[in-house]
Write a structure and sequence with these properties.
This protein has eight helices and no strands. It is mainly alpha-helical. It is elongated, with a radius of gyration of 24 Å.
Length: 228
């Protein structure tokens, strides 16, 4: 039986973060582009994937069997998330030497998740306020149509739709992070000085954030035109 923990050089009680750290450390030297064998790298990748998946890890720990990964319905939209972030990096025209591209993409996704979760919380509060207003608005004339109540209902439905879309987006982004865990960006060029690397990484993160904001503005323009 293959000992997945031994492959990664970790203890059985290792956390997901420790599994990921061990995988990245070993992948950098065992990748075929670095002189390692494809078979050894494939086994290393499998160990990382199994031990990073709670269900597959539990089955492996209990039976020693390595369960194949099940297809995920979010993969299509998750790959779109990764493609969008990669596109921002590709078109940023920044020097990428020595930078951890995977970490930059993951951080950009985490930042996007945080923004969407904040928006979800904001819309949830808006729904609560709408419900309170809905209970207060009354027509003076008995039996007349309550148009203001219908307007409030419309706002409530809009907020619920906004929450649903953002929750779906967050799910896709979380799946994107899981997918990225199985990949590594190999850079065989000479590393840059630590200070320069930090400065370039910060500059690239700023560029990605700016391009993200621009993409959101451009995406909102058709809606604004339709309202006008």
């Amino acid at each position: 039986m293959i000992d997945l923990y031994r492959l990664l050089g970790i203890k059985r009680g290792a956390t997901k973060a420790e599994v990921r750290k061990a995988y990245r450390r070993k992948a950098k030297v065992s990748h075929p582009d670095k002189g390692g064998s494809a078979e050894a790298f494939s086994a290393l990748t499998m160990a990382h994937e199994v031990l990073s998946d709670t269900g597959r890890r539990e089955k492996y720990d209990t039976t020693g069997e390595i369960e194949q990964a099940k297809p995920n319905n979010f993969d299509g939209s998750a790959v779109e998330v990764i493609a969008q972030k990669l596109g921002l990096i590709i078109h940023a025209e920044s020097e990428l030497t020595g930078l951890d591209i995977g970490e930059l993409i993951e951080q950009a996704i985490r930042d996007d998740i945080a923004r969407r979760q904040a928006s979800i919380a904001e819309q949830a509060r808006a729904i609560e306020r709408a419900a309170k207003l809905r209970a207060r608005v009354k027509r003076k004339a008995e039996g007349a149509d309550n148009m203001l109540a219908r307007v409030i209902d419309w706002h409530e439905r809009s907020s619920k739709e906004h929450i649903k879309k953002n929750e779906e987006a967050v799910s896709s982004m979380e799946r994107a992070l899981e997918i990225l865990d199985g990949y590594l960006f190999i850079d065989d060029r000479p590393p840059v000085e630590p200070d320069s690397e930090d400065q370039m990484a910060a500059a690239l993160r700023d560029t990605i954030a700016t391009l993200d904001e621009l993409a959101a503005i451009l995406a909102a323009r058709p809606k604004e035109a339709a309202v006008g």
